[in-house]
Amino acid sequence: MSDLVRRLMVTGGAGFIGSNFARLVLAGDGLEKLVVLDKLTYAGNLANLEDLRADPRFAFVQGDIADGTLVDELASDVQAIINFAAESHVDRSIEAPEAFITTDVYGTYVLLEAARRHGHARFLQVSTDEVYGHVPTGSSRESDPLSPRSPYSASKAGADLLAMAYHVTHGLPVVVTRGANTYGPYQYPEKLIPLFITNAIDDEPLPLYGDGLQQRDWIHVDDHCAAIDLVFRLGEAGSAYNVGAGNHATNIDLTGRLLALLERPASLVRHVADRPGHDRRYALDTSRLTALGWQPQVTLDDGLAATVRWYQQHEAWWRPLKSGEYLEYYRRQYGDRLAAGTVGA
After folding, report:
1. What is the pLDDT of residues 202-237, one digit of tens each?
2. Is the residue at 55 inside a domain?
3. What is the pLDDT of residue 306?
4. How many domains does one find in the chain?
5. Which one of 4, 242, 270, 340 has the largest count of C-beta atoms within 10 Å of its C-beta?
6. Is 129 one of the annotated active-site residues of the chain?
7. Is the pLDDT of residue 1 over 60?
């Protein structure tokens, strides 16, 4: 953690990447106070932070980043904000986009305003490679135009641009990270890897969109968090940094790897109707990040094996999540698709 920042607020810190980041920074000795602000929507989970709650430096506040009064009060007692808070599932953004605009764009504005008013030393906006849109060849550089193709990625692109505007207009020391597909422990089981792991454990079908040849770069959450920490400390204000591990794989290849690790048959795969506007390929040029001295430490093979073991060993964490609201959403999203899907690897 930066020597200039002893009191930090992490928003969305009860979610997947945010909780892993909170764990990372509290493992060090640079912080006097870490405030985690989280609305605790369906993907926010206090169980993700259970091992941190005894740390005297840690404070949890349940609340919405769009609540200007609350954010201003919390921002007055910290020196920097790292914003992980976001609605982040593409399928849900297609079904109900309003929440994405409210949280991802307006919520980011509220945080930026609070950071500006209180003269914060740093504001880091956590974004996504999806803001670049489909990348048929080559790799996206931070200077490339943003070309989002879903309500989710459009809301994140809007937040990126707003954060950069606050740097130009108000001199706020903003940095942005744009991360590749992230996986690892504590990921809510609607995303591809935890969904397929937990379904396969229960011998339930794996709903694979289309032909499964969509290509992504996969980065373990530990590597992603280490990159965010480095950019927070050393990144140049007003700059964006791509965060990827170079672990490119198609969705169908990834599915096969997971089934092999779980010793489950390929017959569990169901090819289902693709979602609208599904980007075919993402790829990131990470030279700006590696110039800071960062390199990924977790290979895809090792990371997937460790992630499978984690979900096998933590059924008490994920089984309660796959009920109630989750089941209602899952049936809406995949029920008809699975009924019409075709079996095959």
Report:
1. 999 999 999 999 999 999 999 999 999 999 999 999
2. yes
3. 98
4. 1
5. 242
6. yes
7. no
Active site residue 95: no
Catalytic residue list contains 130: yes
The CATH number for 149's domain is 3.40.50.720
pLDDT, mean over the chain: 95
Residue 248 lies in a domain: no
Q: Which of 104, 129, 217, 229 is labelled catalytic?
A: 129
Whether 275 is in a domain gets the answer no
* 3-state SS track over the chain: CCCCCCEEEEECCCCHHHHHHHHHHHCCCCCCEEEEEECCCCCCCHHHHHHHCCCCCEEEEECCCCCHHHHHHHHCCCCEEEECCCCCCHHHHHHCCHHHHHHHHHHHHHHHHHHHHCCCCEEEEEEEHHHHCCCCCCCECCCCCCCCCCHHHHHHHHHHHHHHHHHHHHCCCEEEEEECEEECCCCCCCCHHHHHHHHHHCCCCEEEECCCCCEEEEEEHHHHHHHHHHHHHHCCCCEEEEECCCCEEEHHHHHHHHHHHHCCCHHHEEEECCCCCCCCECCECCHHHHCCCCCCCCCHHHHHHHHHHHHHHCHHHHHHHCCCHHHHHHHHHHHHHHHHCEECC
Per the confidence metrics, is the pTM higher than 0.85?
Answer: yes
Catalytic residue among 38, 87, 152, 282: 152
In a domain, 52, yes or no: yes
